[in-house]
Specification:
By secondary structure, the protein is α/β, with parallel strands linked by helices. The chain is built from 16 helices and 13 strands. The chain is globular, with a radius of gyration of 21 Å. The protein binds uracil.
């Protein structure tokens, strides 16, 4: 199979079933699966191969079923970005609109943050929830949303394969990304799904064409499995909002739920909420539910349902350092990848699976592209418990911040396509 794919061949359904099952059971060795993954990165997979690969990953574990819940289920998945805290305000908002939101989330790896890492900065909050407890929370009309870690039995083939891809340079492949994400989302048992496919320097895919192809493959996989699926293409050249880092992003999400927060975070939250509400067949405007405080009530209840204290003070990093504007003009670039790597080096992210992250570490952004700035004004505040990390973070920001006296163009749109 490795040499067949290496030489541009197509794998049969039986071969795919065999290799995914064999890898899950330890019969196919890690080095063999790594070689096959690298061959797939180079040669790709047909739609048939991708669909079968996804089905085999779902079949490697158990599939959840929420069809008996009294409310329609709908979930969102983002392909990952810098400062992407959207799940935090979105899940309680959509639950407050009348849907049940069963969101299995992950931890961060590399420059993109993980939703569970963010929520774990809330004192007492637990990511592990049993399926029985998930059902209870989803059925409770005062809560209706659960954001938790996937159990060991949900697409275990993907868990093993993703850990391997992460250390073998085999993440960036449309069929492998699409099958990895969709196997988990289909196995999770949601009836509807809205995908936020990121495009730009801080995303897996930098070009609109690549992101559109990934979105198309994922939507087809979802629809073929009976999950109502739509995808939005959204910009990830600059971080979302004004914070990147775990507790910093929780605080910003609470601002959004309180009716404030940065305009881009509010826009994306409401755009995704409208799609989710429509997919769930509900007729309600999420903007009303956000502004009248119902989304905040659901947030508080969602955090409490998983042991967290929504009123507790969030952790704060012990050290800060300010990066100032070097000239006067308009900030035209605040590169998502540069900011993401800097936040990661400050301790907000991990380099290897299983490492601990710092709850208070990260970056506050005092200006965003399009803003006028004056030489010497604070642009970024870096937060960390480990001050040795400042030098590496500042190095990561080299070239990430651009100030121009006469910008050639306005900042681009956030929502790039559907
Ligand atoms: N997220 C996943 O779950 N899998 C991938 O392959 C990439 C991003």
């Amino acid at each position: 199979m490795i040499t067949a794919k290496r030489d541009g061949g197509e794998l049969s359904d039986a071969q795919i079933d065999w290799v995914v099952d064999g890898f899950t059971r330890g019969i196919v060795a890690d080095e063999q699966m790594s070689a096959l993954a690298m061959a797939i990165v180079w040669r790709g997979m047909t739609r048939r191969e991708t669909a079968r690969w996804t089905a085999a990953m779902i079949a490697s574990g158990s599939r959840m079923d929420f069809t008996d819940l009294p409310r329609p289920t709908v979930d969102k998945h983002s392909t990952g970005g810098v400062g992407d805290k959207i799940t935090l305000p979105l899940a309680p908002l959509v639950a407050a609109c009348g849907a049940a939101v069963p969101q299995l989330s992950g931890r961060g790896l590399g420059h993109t943050g993980g939703t569970l890492d963010k929520l774990e900065s809330i004192p007492g909050w637990q990511a592990d929830v049993t399926v029985a407890r998930m059902r209870e929370i989803l059925s409770d009309p005062a809560t209706g949303a659960v954001v938790c870690a996937a159990g060991a039995d949900l697409a275990p083939a993907d868990k093993r394969l993703y850990a391997l891809r992460d250390v073998t340079g085999t993440v960036e492949s449309i069929p492998l990304i699409a099958s990895s994400i969709m196997s988990k989302k289909i196995a999770e048992g949601t009836a509807a799904l809205v995908l936020d496919v990121k495009v730009g320097s801080g995303a897996f895919l930098e070009t609109l064409d690549g992101a559109r192809e990934l979105a198309t493959v994922m939507v087809e996989l979802g629809r073929d499995a009976g999950v109502r699926t739509v995808a939005l293409l959204t910009a990830m050249d600059t971080p979302l909002g004004r914070t990147a880092g775990n507790a910093l992003e929780v605080a910003e999400s609470v601002e959004v739920l309180a009716g404030g927060g940065p305009a881009d975070v509010v826009e994306l939250t409401l755009t995704l909420a409208r799609e989710m509400v429509a997919q769930a067949g509900l007729n309600i405007d999420p903007a009303d539910v956000l502004s009248d405080g119902r989304a905040m009530d659901h947030w508080r209840s969602m955090i409490q349902a998983q042991g967290g204290d929504p009123d507790a003070a969030l952790p704060v990093a012990r050290h800060t350092e300010v990066v100032k504007a070097e000239s006067t003009g308009v900030l035209t670039r605040l590169d998502a990848m540069g900011v993401g790597v800097a936040a990661w080096r400050l301790g907000a992210g991990r380099a290897r699976q299983g490492e601990k992250v710092q709850a208070g570490a990260g970056i506050e952004m005092h200006a965003k592209p399009g803003d006028s700035v004056v030489a010497g004004q604070p642009l970024l505040t870096l937060h960390t418990d480990t001050p040795d990390a400042f030098a590496g973070a500042v190095a990561a920001l080299d070239g990430a911040v651009v100030i121009e006296s006469a910008p050639a163009s306005e900042p681009g749109e956030l929502i790039l396509g559907r």
